[in-house]
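User: Please predict structures.

Assistant: First:
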Amino acid sequence: MMAGIESKLNAVWYGNATVPWPLRLLSRLYGWLLPLRARISSESLRVPVVVVGNFTLGGTGKTPLIIALVQFLQSQGFKPGVVSRGYGRTSKDSRSVDSESSAETVGDEPLLIARITRAPVRVDVDRRAAAEYLIGLGCTVIVSDDGLQHHRLPRTVEIEVLDAARGYGNGHLLPAGPLREPVRPVDFKVKNGQSADIDGCYGMSLSIEPCYNLATRESRHLNTFEGLSVHAVAGIGNPERFFTALTDAGVRAHCTAYPDHHRFQPDDLPAGTVLMTEKDAVKVFAGSRVDLWAVPVRARLSAEFLQDFLRRVQ
């Protein structure tokens, strides 16, 4: 049911479907309420704070960018910490995330970030409280997973991630369109799917890394699945991007899309070889199955962007 609603909304937001009048009315009401929010905090914390987010609703490639930035900061001698709301988790309390945490209690994206980067990650509905906690642990820079709209969190650098193909859709505010708030200036605009740094936007591409088996941890290149009968599942903001990447790599899969942050059950995984994103893989228990494979992607950024970003953080 949720997948059907998402499909209809995407047709309105990013397709040519007419916006129904109830959505237009709700969008206008939403726009009237936005100015009632508090302004972005002008205070500063003891360390730089980098907010990575989007003005559209999900599916832009934010998590791969955060992972790349955290790893870059680590390579430059910083001790980055990541704060997140932990969207989709069942718990509401503040929690530290490590590689043994459960996606159900901390959220799929924070868990994936913690496993790949090994950086301290804290989930809290109050990102400022989470940032102060990590600073107390000795973190020298804070990276916020989402948070452009979380105005209580002071920030040194704002980075917007935008899908190069989808853009801002029809340009309407929620729920008539995909915009969480009117587009405003930020320090860096990164376009996922743009090959070069042009028109004031930095390009970002996603490269597919060797796949790994969820049960055996065997590593295998994606091209080894060419010509085989495989299934692909995705519970992410823009599943078509994942399915298209498989097709571009020569893999012809039977594809099934689920809502973003979907909690996978055994019946959701077809019999036979199944490919999925890493974000989905952290929510899947392989059990006795040895035919479940995660397909990792990593963000590729220009040297110019990384140097410009480093200068702003310093």
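Second:
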Amino acid sequence: MSKCPCGSKQRLDKCCEPILLGKRIAKTPEQLMRSRYSAYAMGHYEYVLNTYAAEPRAQLNVLELAQGNQETQWVHLDVVHIQGRQVEFKAYYRINDALFILHERSDFIKENGRWVYLTGQIITSGQLTV
């Protein structure tokens, strides 16, 4: 079995896959953020949509999420800092042969007993020189 894309070094079936398949829910904001990263990396855009808080989710749809990531290959995730319901991370991705970074501080809330993504503050975003 392959390793989980979220960078936990665990097997996919022991880490994010049960969350992505709805067999269990994310217990912490970090678990939710990692599962959302894995969903982006694996093309599970319905899961991504369903893990937005109600207000931002109403402005999105699965097709837009998929089209926005059509040429994106997610390659690495670093969790930088966790404080309460906030998770800071760096996500690295490729578009064609160029490497990019998204450094974000994300806010999560609980809705109906589940952690969901509310909003994020982008710290840095752009192409890296290799």
